[in-house]
UniProtKB/TrEMBL annotation:
Pfam families: Amidohydro_1
GO terms for biological process, alphabetical: L-histidine catabolic process to glutamate and formamide
InterPro entries membership: Amidohydro-rel (IPR006680), HutI (IPR005920), Metal-dep_hydrolase_composite (IPR011059), Metal_Hydrolase (IPR032466)
Protein name (Swiss-Prot/TrEMBL): Imidazolonepropionase
């Protein structure tokens, strides 16, 4: 057992609703606080001096200077297992080329597939670990990672095995997702419906047998998979007992409806979601995940986060870190920028990258600082929590704790 502190402020994010809008006045802030940790779990939060007096023999982990402590963040949507780089896509986009033109000139998702197929497991493991460490340094200790750059049995399994192996090298929690339905691979001879059936018959059973992922994702879009075939695929994946998440409404609306109808845990992107569908989504238990990094990467509009919250939806915010649409990999910067464009309160943003994004991954043991929760913490050297988003990511995390231990 040990006591961590003192903190100028502890922002616990406790006792807040899972859904809907939040104001900063609703935030519980413990000033001059301490956190009591036992076996990786929070036992108590409260006034540091009082806790020290109550547990006089206890080991102390002293915090220097004025610092603010929050629950560590959860990035619930990334594609950080990939080979190569797509800087040329960026140049082509800025020269006015369309998505299709870029794909035709050798860029796009398919080019990342070719690089990822070429990479060995060891090479992929090294790069994914570097990206994981970079996320940890931002205060993110729970990271979802998708496959989807293999797109055949061998390479999809390779990606998921790499993610599984990465877990044995990091204290961060990694949540793998099978995104074999990212795109119909160019070397698959058959229709996209046949490819989706191939995933059901040939990939998912192996994913299950090796326990490589419990979640299945699909990119529903004109350039990827159409709504009806996607719905059938998702229902079959559900029958195989996978949890569902969807790349929905990125450029065209309609697919968030499918996500809700099949009971997806989350619908992610939503840049193009129409008002009617926002209402539908917001009334459901499907988490609406904004990916501001993709809006910034592509120069597209932001997810209507304000409308989603006002309609009572569960809003998470994630980085979408990938080599194509979202190469930045800085969730704090992206979430801060989303706040300015969508007029979000600090409380709404912090909820979106802590307990609400953890909920999107079915992890209800983290994301707030209260008794019984996982002692994953992030601290910032500042006297006021508002400064974290105000500086748009340039105020760096000072300490990161996982299970109560500094990493
Ligand atoms: O979430 N939209 C589809 N998939 C990714 C992009 C992946 C890529 O371009 O490599 C996304 O933005
Ligand atoms: Fe994505």
């Amino acid at each position: 057992m040990k006591l961590i502190g003192p903190f100028k402020q502890i922002v616990t994010l406790a006792n807040l609703p899972l859904r809907g809008k939040l104001s900063d006045e609703q935030l519980e802030i413990i000033t001059d606080g301490g956190i009591l940790v036992k076996d990786g779990t929070i036992l108590k939060t409260g006034n540091f001096t009082a806790l020290k007096a109550e547990f006089s023999q206890i080991k102390l982990e002293e915090i220097e200077g004025e610092q603010v402590c929050l629950p560590a963040f959860t990035d619930s949507h990334t594609h950080i297992c990939f080979g190569g780089n797509r800087a040329n896509d960026f140049a082509l986009r800025n020269a006015g080329k369309t998505y299709l033109e870029i794909a035709e000139s050798g860029g796009g998702i398919w080019s990342s597939v070719l690089h990822t197929r070429k990479a060995s497991e060891d090479e992929l493991l090294q790069t994914v670990l570097e990206r994981i460490n970079s996320l940890i340094s931002l205060g993110i200790t729970t990271i979802e990672i998708k496959s989807g750059y293999g797109l055949d049995v061998e390479n999809e399994l390779k990606m998921l095995r790499v993610i599984k192996k990465a877990q044995s090298f990091t204290k961060a929690t990694l949540i793998p997702t099978c995104l074999s339905a990212h795109l119909k691979p160019k070397d698959f001879t058959g229709s996209s419906e046949e490819y989706l059936q191939f995933i059901i018959d040939e990939i998912l059973p192996k994913v299950k047998a090796e326990n490589l992922a419990k979640r299945v994702d699909i990119f529903i879009e004109k350039s990827a998979f159409l709504p009806e075939e996607s719905r059938n695929f998702l229902l079959k994946a559900k029958e195989l007992d996978f949890e569902i998440t969807v790349h929905a409404d990125q450029f065209t609306s309609g697919s968030s409806r499918i996500a809700v109808e099949v009971g997806a845990k989350s619908a992610d992107h939503l840049e193009a979601t129409i008002d009617e569908d926002i209402e539908f989504l917001a009334k459901s238990n499907t988490v609406a995940t904004a990916l501001p990094g993709a809006s910034l990467g592509l120069g597209e509009k932001f997810t209507p986060a304000r409308k989603i919250l006002d309609a009572g939806g569960i809003l998470a915010i994630a980085s979408d870190w990938n080599p194509g649409s979202a190469p930045m990999g800085n969730l704090i910067t992206q979430a801060s920028i989303l706040a300015t464009f969508e007029k979000l309160s600090t409380a709404e943003v912090l909820a979106g990258i802590t307990f609400r994004s953890a909920f999107a991954l079915n992890l209800e043991d983290r994301g707030t600082l209260e008794n019984g929760k996982k002692a994953d913490l992030v601290t910032f050297k500042t006297d006021n929590f508002q400064n974290i988003l105000y500086y748009q990511g340039s105020l760096k995390a000072e300490h990161i704790f996982i299970d109560g231990e500094k990493v």
